Amino acid sequence: MSDQGKLSGLFDGFESYRNVERADLNGVLRSGIVALDTNLLLDLYRYSKDAREQVFSALEAVAPALFMPAQVQREFWRNRDEVIRRVIATNSVAGLQEARKKALAEMDSWATRTMPGSEAVDKRALLEKAFGEAIAYVKKGGSGLNLRAALKNVDEDTVLDKLLALFNGRVGRPFDAERQADLVAIGRQRFASRVPPGYMDADKPEQQEEGTGDFLLWEQLIQHAAAEKKDLLFVTRDRKEDWWRLDATREPIGPRVELVNEMAERAGVGFFMAVPEEFLEAASAAFHVEVSQRTLDTTERLAGETEPDGPMPWSWEQFEILLSRLEESGYPLRAKVLREAAEDPNGFVPRQRVYELGKYPEDRLLVGFTRPIMGAVRDLVASGSLPEGLEPALRAHYLRPGKAEGFVVPRSIVESVGGED
């Protein structure tokens, strides 16, 4: 009987379009290979102390599955010093010290006109104490890391200490010079036909390895998976189209079909991808390690963080462009939450209000709620409809450890919307 006489199902031959279930990720975490992109390792310097400890707990739980491609190792050392310098610059107290001088001068001026001397002294002391505590916290970075010492001496780098233990004997060997040259040429040929991954970075200025870094990483993932005969999970906060299938707001749906198929054809195993917060959720569920919603929100925020030249404020016109894109892309709830927050004097929408607007059950988590908004902004920036470097349009807001109290928009959005009334 010929093949034409046989019938099949709609997914037959197109299995890579199936949704990835939690059970799939659980299986890879327990018995497969887990590879982390460089950005996850470098983000460990940007976390608060508690968040970083939770991320390390998740990594330690999956340690037997970890694998680091040589390209990730190369890019980690290539970028580590600059990332630490940027974090140190972000934690600079110069602005706070200037604000303290101005605030104390205003307090002194006001106190001489309105209150007795003893009361003025007490109020001034309270203000001085509050600024002192804030400056001390920022100096420490809120992270429990001595980054200046770590930059001068790797032996003082506690992040590096843990990474060394986690990846001991789990780092791929670099390709020799001849093989690397061949692969760079192959990568450039693939990019010409827009074969993923890596073509989105191929012609960016200051690229090394002729822009083929992602392809070199990919090639070693395939070789390692083929040797181990195990499914592989790649975790990255890179959300570009040369790695992911994307939805209307440029948010990941799943890995590119070409990548799933190439891994299956060349290594004979399954290929999965996750953004960092999805990986942390899966590791937490599989191994019962604590990963708080605050840590997940921080991880998500880092993916959309602007470089430290200073974020740009929003205008009313830009805000309306974002709202329109969200409504057109099937995310009207996010647009409603943004509108309500923008109309609040403090730019705040309580958690319970989000549940009311979305008609969510009480036990539903709000992890990832801001992700479509970040995706829409990235898409609008890519198309030229919005400028680069805008402040995050919506952030989770915390008053204490645990669940977010709600969500907040930046002051520039509140003021721009208020100015249109």
What does this structure look like?
With about 425 residues, the protein is α/β, with parallel strands linked by helices. It has three domains: about 15-90 and about 150-285, no CATH class; about 90-140; about 305-420, no CATH class. About 55% of the residues lie in helices and about 5% in strands. It has helices at about 20-30, 40-45, 50-60, 70-90, 95-115, 115-140, 145-150, 160-165, 175-190, 215-230, 255-265, 275-285, 295-305, 315-330, 330-345, 350-360, 370-380, 410-420, and strands spanning about 35, 65, 230-235, 245, 250-255, 270-275, 350, 395, 405-410. The strands form three sheets. Strands 2-1-3-6 form a four-stranded parallel β-sheet. Helix 10 (about 215-230) packs across helix 11 (about 255-265) and helix 14 (about 315-330) packs antiparallel against helix 15. The longest helix is centred in the first third of the chain and has 24 residues, at about 115-140.
Based on DSSP secondary structure assignment, what is the total number of beta strands?
A: 9
Tell me, rounded to a whole number, the average pLDDT: 86
Series of secondary-structure elements, N-terminal to C-terminal: HEHHEHHHHHHHEEEHEHHHHEHHEEH
Report the C-alpha radius of gyration, rounded.
24 Å
Largest sheet descriptor? 4 strands, parallel
Instruction: List the uncertain runs.
Output: 306-310
Structural class: alpha/beta
Biggest sheet, spatial arrangement of strands: 2-1-3-6
Strand content: 5-15%
| Distance from first to last alpha carbon | 74 Å
Helix tally equals 18
